[in-house]
């Protein structure tokens, strides 16, 4: 028998508040579980909560921006008696959210339960007499609701072993637990020694999936696709299901059974009063359902949460907040006033998910909208996005599956190996494992300064393609320059001011520099004496504002001091960045896998490291300005797939495997003149704790801030288009209430601007 363990108070309390520097762009379509109170329904996605008050219609959201930071949600429960929402996770984390916005993270199960970490998943909550019985993959843990402290844990497997508990209920003074795979166990709920596994007897040895006390009857869901009622002696069949049940729950008036394609609602006589098989215009993959009075709420796998009436279940209302199609976003791109997102893509070894065929677009006026997958010609694994610089309504999206999509308003064209032949896109040039499988693996589309569109075509001899501004296609053969080009895969292209294409490769060719204007000149940067790259697998490249090339590989970072070297030299060598840390010299991001590099308006670099969050480093890499991780910021994951910067507002977007969020940076692209300088917030009110931003600046503008009497309180020079002022007088003290003058002048003094800001303490 396992010894009783005492839960220590491993509790972290936070309070929901608006984070002015961060924004969440989460999807609320993938419903994991739902619960209910007298007047509201609560729904959980993998990493967020939302609830609707069915009387007022008010919608409330909790996500990482509010401090709600789950691992992976597996169960949710709302206690009407205590006004608490309990959220269980696959790692044992329990998050308790109060109606006043307080968020409590209880990590006792993670830290104290003496079982393997992969057996701490929370499966179900059951409230009874001021306690919640938490069904987990190791047993039952009891939480007291009056003080939110853990009381006991019951290991009820034969011999006291830990055993998965799927669901519990209380009936006629006994607690019943559905175990896997040991049937239903039972014990007296008043027994003071429930930690002793001997007190738990086998009630039924069948294979069960759920159990509930419905209208003072013990009802259970069996793996044989039937629902049974216990008559005091044995189980009697009351409902037969066409497929396995996945959620089994009861309210005062209804028994609700959810299957993948069916939702059944039964009354107290076990008569079917609603049977839902389809929500119009949606894929009918259901995950959970609940009723409140005459309202039926249905959670779906990918389409969100819907509400209908039991009395007339013909019309459905979508309740999920507006968001992207799903949280796993592969690539994002800011085009004009819209943010575009694609899904699918490939993993770090270019293994592709062909099934995700969707594009989302966000605008402040409309919110999120979707381009229907039916319009995309079956193109999955959508990777990069680029707009024609001469016509931003013309957007190109590469597919690592079927070619290149061209989207112009509602007109969509797919370029592939057939309609661009003979000089255009090609299918793979090795025999696929799947017979007759055609793969047109296109990636990294980018425009040069002549309006030509370039892209890579993996797994072919002619791995570089050009769609000229006049509509003609051109291919460039790598047979004599690359090792086995028909096996090679390529990441995103960067094109510099000289129209040199910098192409990251995966297998054996390192970084490829190519320029057709110099007789198809090609230079490869590899390892050691051939380029000094730490790995031949290059993941990303970026040309900064000083024409340096930053190179991210699977095993570290390198910088080429000038892209101009390609023009005049035949061999190129990149250098590591050496920094001093704790008095020791070391290489920046030594042996780290670099996922993405983006350059902001001040020439700082945002660099994401696989599994380690994101860094903002200074222009030369010597100083780390920010480091954001899941642990110290609202990031929902430390695996950041893509970074995108809005050069106008300074907003930095992070696409992660668990959702899209953004950070309001200050390093915007410099303006051409001072005609659009603006100051925000203005006025600065007493409850504001951030910094004053002055945006719309030209590069290297001189900014002086004085009080109304002309006393200088702050001075700086801009790098990029925005500067911040912390409302301190040279960092010594907070300035007093009043109007402050902002004098702005260009580096040569010819152009000037004067603005004002009011500060209220």
From TrEMBL:
Every PorZ N-terminal beta-propeller domain range: 43-200
SUPFAM superfamilies xref list: NHL repeat, Quinoprotein alcohol dehydrogenase-like
Keyword Signal set for record: yes
InterPro entries (alphabetical): PorZ_N (IPR048954), Quinoprotein_ADH-like_sf (IPR011047), Reg_prop (IPR011110), Secre_tail (IPR026444), WD40/YVTN_repeat-like_dom_sf (IPR015943)
Keywords carried by this UniProt record: Signal
Domain Secretion system C-terminal sorting: 679-759
UniProt protein name: T9SS type A sorting domain-containing protein
């Amino acid at each position: 028998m396992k010894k009783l363990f005492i839960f220590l108070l491993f509790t972290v309390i936070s309070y929901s508040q608006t984070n002015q520097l961060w924004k969440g762009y989460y999807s609320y379509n993938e419903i994991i579980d739902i619960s209910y109170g007298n007047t509201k329904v609560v729904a959980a996605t993998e990493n967020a909560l939302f609830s609707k008050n069915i009387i007022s219609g008010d919608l409330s959201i909790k996500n990482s921006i509010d401090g709600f930071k789950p691992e992976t949600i597996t169960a949710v429960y709302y206690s009407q008696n205590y006004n608490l929402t309990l959220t269980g996770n696959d790692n044992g984390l329990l998050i308790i959210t109060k109606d006043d916005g307080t968020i409590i993270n209880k990590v006792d199960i993670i830290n104290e339960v003496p079982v393997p970490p992969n057996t701490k998943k929370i499966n179900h909550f059951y409230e009874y007499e001021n306690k919640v019985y938490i069904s987990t993959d190791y047993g039952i843990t009891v939480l007291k609701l009056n003080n939110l402290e853990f009381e006991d844990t019951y290991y009820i497997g034969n011999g006291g072993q830990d055993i998965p508990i799927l669901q519990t209920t209380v009936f006629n003074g006994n607690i019943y637990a559905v175990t896997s795979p040991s049937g239903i166990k039972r014990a007296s709920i008043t027994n003071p020694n429930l930690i002793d596994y001997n007190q738990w007897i086998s009630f039924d040895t069948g294979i069960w999936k759920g159990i509930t006390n419905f209208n003072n009857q013990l009802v259970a869901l069996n793996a044989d696709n039937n629902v049974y009622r216990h008559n005091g002696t044995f189980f009697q069949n009351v409902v037969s299901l066409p497929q396995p049940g996945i959620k089994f729950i009861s309210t005062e008036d209804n028994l609700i059974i959810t299957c993948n394609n069916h939702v059944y609602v039964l009354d107290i006589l076990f008569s079917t009063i609603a049977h839902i098989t389809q929500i119009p215009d949606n894929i009918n993959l259901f995950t959970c359902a609940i009723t409140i009075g005459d309202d039926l709420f249905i959670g779906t796998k990918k389409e969100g949460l819907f509400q209908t009436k039991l009395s007339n279940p013909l019309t459905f209302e979508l309740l999920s907040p507006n968001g992207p199609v799903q949280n796993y976003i592969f690539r994002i791109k800011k085009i004009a006033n819209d943010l575009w997102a694609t899904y699918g893509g490939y993993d770090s070894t270019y293994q592709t998910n062909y099934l995700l065929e969707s594009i989302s677009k966000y605008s402040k006026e409309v919110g999120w909208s979707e381009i229907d997958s039916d319009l995309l010609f079956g193109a999955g694994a959508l990777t990069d996005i680029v707009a024609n610089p001469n016509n931003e309504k013309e957007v190109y999206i590469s597919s690592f599956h079927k070619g290149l999509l061209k989207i112009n308003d509602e007109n969509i064209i797919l370029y592939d190996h057939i309609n661009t032949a003979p000089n255009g896109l090609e299918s793979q040039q090795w025999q696929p494992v799947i017979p007759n499988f055609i793969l047109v693996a296109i990636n990294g589309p980018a425009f040069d300064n002549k309006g030509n569109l370039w892209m890579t075509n993996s797994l072919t001899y002619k791995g570089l393609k050009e769609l000229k501004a006049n509509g003609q296609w051109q291919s460039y053969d790598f047979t004599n320059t690359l090792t086995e080009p028909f096996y090679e895969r390529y990441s995103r292209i960067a094109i510099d001011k000289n129209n040199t294409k910098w192409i990251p490769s995966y297998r054996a060719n390192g970084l490829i520099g190519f320029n057709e204007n110099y007789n198809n000149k090609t230079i490869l940067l590899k390892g050691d004496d051939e380029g000094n790259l730490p790995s031949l697998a290059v993941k990303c490249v970026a040309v900064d504002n000083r024409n340096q090339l930053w190179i991210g590989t699977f095993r570290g970072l390198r910088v080429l001091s000038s892209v101009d070297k390609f023009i005049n030299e035949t061999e190129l060598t990149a250098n590591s960045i050496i920094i001093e840390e704790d008095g020791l010299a070391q290489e920046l991001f030594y042996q780290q896998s670099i996922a993405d590099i983006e350059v902001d308006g001040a020439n700082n670099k945002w660099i994401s490291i696989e599994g380690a969050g994101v860094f903002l480093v200074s222009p030369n890499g010597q100083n780390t300005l920010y480091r954001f991780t899941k642990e110290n910021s609202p990031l929902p994951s430390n695996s950041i797939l893509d970074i995108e910067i809005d050069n106008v507002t300074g907003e930095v977007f992070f696409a992660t495997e668990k959702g899209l969020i953004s950070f309001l940076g200050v390093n915007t692209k410099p303006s051409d003149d001072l005609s659009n300088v603006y100051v925000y917030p203005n006025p600065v009110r007493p409850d504001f704790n951030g910094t004053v931003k002055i945006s719309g600046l030209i590069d290297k503008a001189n900014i002086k801030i004085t009080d109304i009497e002309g006393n200088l309180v702050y001075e700086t020079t801009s790098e990029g288009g925005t500067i911040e002022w912390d409302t301190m007088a040279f960092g010594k003290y907070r300035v007093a209430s009043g109007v402050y003058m902002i004098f702005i002048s260009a580096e040569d003094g010819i152009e000037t601007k004067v603005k004002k800001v009011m500060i209220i303490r």
